[in-house]
Design a protein that fits this description.
The complex is a heterodimer. Chain A contains 7 helices and 4 strands, in the order ααααβααβββα. Chain A is α+β, with helices and mostly antiparallel strands. In chain A, helix 2 (22-33) runs antiparallel to helix 3 and helix 3 crosses helix 4 (52-59). Chain A is elongated and about 50 Å long. Chain A starts with a helix and ends with a helix. Chain B folds into 2 domains: 20-213, NADH-ubiquinone oxidoreductase 51kDa subunit (Rossmann fold), CATH 3.40.50; 301-385, NADH-ubiquinone oxidoreductase 51kDa subunit, iron-sulphur binding domain (de novo design (two linked rop proteins)), CATH 1.20.1440. Chain B contains 15 helices and 9 strands. The longest helix of chain B is centred in the C-terminal third of the chain and has 19 residues, at 321-339. Classes of the chains: A alpha+beta, B alpha/beta.
Chain lengths: 154, 386
C-alpha cells in the first residue's frame, strides 16, 4: 500500500515522530481515509518506531478513530436523551430508509456509514448529527432528507 | 426574566481595542493577579468547583521552570453546550484568560484540548490564535497556545485523562495525588481550567474582584452559564447569577409541567418537583457545570436513567473494575427489574453496587454514576418497576 506509506510519512513530517504526535497522525489518517486499517497502523508504528500494539491500543480507545472500514461520509446521530426526546428515532429511521442500511452499517458503494454517538453539544437544538466533521442541528424529517439527498448527489 | 437574574459578562462585547484587558494585565505582577482571582471567590466552572485562584497559586509556587496552562474544552457532559458557544463567539477572551494564567504562574505554553465533535471550529480558532500570538509578540510576552484535538472520548474531560491524551496515549485517568499543580501534562506543574473559568478570570481582570464578588452567594460567587435543554420552550444558553432556587429556575424555563430536572448532566443529580423549592443551584446546593435538562410528566424516568447508564457503560475507560463492570451490571439490573425478571427489591442491591462504585472507582466518572442512579431510582421508584 504505497499510498498509506506516503500519507503516514507526510503526517509524521507535519506532526513529528514523538509519542504526542501519535493522535494527530491517527486523526490525519481518519481525515483522509475515514478509518485506520491494519496496514496503516503498522506503518505508523514503523514510522514512529513504536510497537504496533501500542498504536492499536491507542487508536481503539477513541471512538472517532475507527479501525473498521467506514464510508466516505460517516453520519453520527446524537443519542443523548435530549436529542432522543426531540425525535432522534425518526431521524434515524429516515436515514435508514434513504440509505437502505441500519445503524452500524455501511452502504455497499462505501459512500455512507451510519452510527450513533454520545452528546454532540447541540442539546438545545436537537436532534443533531455530524457528517464527518460538519454538525447539523434542529433536524426534522424534511431537513434530514434534504441533507442526505444532497450528500447522495455529491 | 423575573425569577432569575440574567447577567452579561461572558458574552459581553469585546473591548474596542483587541486584547486590551490582556495587555493591561501584563503590567500586573504574578502575585497581584493571583490575589485578585482568589479574592473574587471564583470556583472552577467545569463542575467540580475548585477555587481557581488556589490552583494558580499552587502552580506558581512550583520551582520547575517548565509549566503548562491547559484549557479543558472537552465539553462532553450530556446536556452541556456552553463552551462551544464561548469558543464560537468570544474565543479571544479564552486565549486572554489562558495567557493571564501564564503570566500569573510563569508558564510559557498553553494547550487548548478541543473535543473531536468540535473539529469544525478549528479553522476559526486557529485564525484567532494567530492574532493572539501577534499581540503577545508585540508585548514581548513569551506565551504560545496550541490546540490539541480529542477524538470522541468523554473520559478525556477528566483532567488527568486529558493530559494522557495530549501526550498521545489512551485517555486513562491517573492516580491522584500527585495533583496537576505538581505534576500535570508531561509531568510538569499544570493549571487546568474549564473554558468558562478562563473567561471569568479575564473578566475579573476587567471589572475587578469586588465587582465580580457582588454577584452570587458566599459559596458561589459570580455568574454561571447554563445550558438549558429538554422540555422547555426556551432551550439555549443563559448567563445567570448563581444561588437561585430550582423552583425559580423552573418557573422561568419550564413548560408548566416539569416533573424533574437533571442538574449537572448524566453525572449530576436528578431533582423531582417536590424538592425544587429547597434546592439551591450552586456549590452550597446542587453544583452544575451548566447542564440543566428538564423533563415533563410525559417522560419516562426509566428511559432517562437507562440512557445515562448506557452512556456511562460506553464511556467508561475500562481501566478499573468497579466502573467497567459496575456500569454494565447497573444497566442489566434495571432492565431486568423493568422486565420483571428481578423483583423490585433488586433495586436495593443495585444501589449497593452504585455505593461501591462511588468509593472504589478510580476517577470521577465511576464515582459519579451513583449520583444520577440514586437520585432517579430513589425519586421515581415506581417508574423503574412498572
Amino acid at each position: 500500500m504505497p499510498e498509506i506509506k506516503e500519507l503516514v510519512k507526510g503526517l509524521a513530517e507535519k506532526h513529528g515522530r514523538n509519542r504526542e504526535s501519535l493522535l494527530p497522525i491517527l486523526q490525519g489518517i481518519i481525515a483522509e481515509e475515514r478509518f485506520i486499517s491494519d496496514a496503516a497502523m503498522t506503518e505508523v508504528a514503523r514510522e514512529l518506531d513504536m510497537s504496533a500494539a501500542l498504536v492499536y491500543g491507542t487508536a481503539t480507545f477513541y471512538s472517532f478513530l475507527d479501525t473498521k472500514p467506514r464510508g466516505k461520509y460517516v453520519i453520527r446521530i446524537c443519542r443523548t436523551i435530549t436529542c432522543d426526546m426531540k425525535g432522534k428515532k425518526q431521524i434515524i429511521k429516515n436515514i435508514e430508509d434513504l440509505l437502505k442500511i441500519k445503524v452500524g452499517e455501511t452502504t455497499k458503494d462505501n459512500k455512507f456509514t451510519l452510527l450513533e454517538t454520545n452528546c454532540l453539544g447541540w442539546c438545545h437544538k436537537g436532534p443533531a448529527m455530524l457528517i464527518n466533521s460538519t454538525p447539523y442541528d434542529s433536524l426534522d424529517e424534511a431537513k434530514v432528507n434534504e441533507i442526505i439527498m444532497e450528500y447522495i448527489r455529491k | 426574566m423575573k425569577n432569575v437574574k440574567r447577567v452579561d459578562i461572558i458574552f459581553g462585547a469585546y473591548t474596542q481595542e483587541k486584547y486590551k484587558v490582556f495587555e493591561q494585565t501584563l503590567s500586573k505582577s504574578s502575585d497581584q493577579i493571583i490575589s485578585e482571582v482568589i479574592e473574587s471567590g471564583l470556583r472552577g466552572r467545569g463542575g467540580a468547583g475548585f477555587p481557581t485562584g488556589l490552583k494558580w497559586k499552587y502552580t506558581a509556587a512550583e520551582a520547575d521552570p517548565v509549566k503548562y496552562v491547559v484549557c479543558n474544552a472537552d465539553e462532553g457532559e450530556p446536556g452541556t453546550f456552553k463552551d462551544r458557544e464561548i469558543l464560537t463567539k468570544v474565543p479571544r477572551k479564552v486565549f486572554s484568560g489562558m495567557a493571564i494564567c501564564g503570566k500569573a504562574t510563569g508558564a510559557k505554553k498553553g494547550f487548548l484540548y478541543l473535543r473531536g465533535e468540535y473539529l469544525y471550529m478549528l479553522e476559526n480558532l486557529n485564525k484567532e490564535l494567530d492574532v493572539f500570538h501577534e499581540v503577545a509578540k508585540k508585548n514581548n510576552f513569551d506565551f504560545t497556545i496550541e490546540i490539541v484535538m480529542g477524538s470522541g472520548a468523554y473520559i478525556c474531560g477528566e483532567e488527568s485523562a486529558l493530559f494522557e491524551s495530549i501526550e498521545g496515549k489512551r485517555g486513562e485517568p491517573r492516580n491522584k495525588p500527585p495533583y496537576p499543580t505538581v505534576s500535570g501534562v508531561f509531568s510538569k506543574p499544570t493549571v487546568i481550567n474549564n473554558v468558562e473559568t478562563f473567561v471569568n478570570t479575564l473578566m475579573i481582570m476587567r471589572i475587578g474582584a469586588k465587582e465580580f464578588q457582588k454577584l452570587g452567594t458566599t459559596d458561589s460567587r459570580g455568574s454561571k452559564l447554563f445550558s438549558v435543554s429538554g422540555d422547555t420552550p426556551i432551550a439555549g444558553i443563559y448567563e445567570l447569577e448563581l444561588g437561585m432556587s430550582l423552583e425559580d429556575f423552573v418557573e422561568e424555563f419550564g413548560d408548566g409541567d416539569t416533573k424533574a430536572v437533571q442538574v449537572g448532566g448524566a453525572s449530576g443529580f436528578c431533582v423531582p418537583r417536590k424538592k425544587f423549592k429547597d434546592t439551591i443551584i450552586g456549590f452550597e446546593g446542587v453544583p452544575t457545570g451548566g447542564s440543566m435538562m428538564l423533563f415533563n410528566s410525559s417522560r419516562s424516568m426509566y428511559n432517562v436513567l437507562k440512557n445515562y447508564v448506557e452512556f456511562f457503560e460506553e464511556e467508561s475507560c475500562g481501566q478499573c473494575t468497579p466502573c467497567r463492570v459496575g456500569c454494565q451490571q447497573l444497566k442489566k439490573g434495571i432492565e431486568a427489574v423493568k422486565k420483571g425478571d428481578k423483583s423490585a427489591a433488586y433495586l436495593n442491591t443495585l444501589q449497593k453496587l452504585a455505593d461501591t462504585m462511588k468509593v472504589a472507582s478510580k476517577c470521577g466518572l465511576g464515582q459519579s454514576v451513583a449520583n444520577s442512579f440514586y437520585s432517579i431510582v430513589d425519586n421515581f421508584k415506581e417508574e423503574m418497576i412498572y
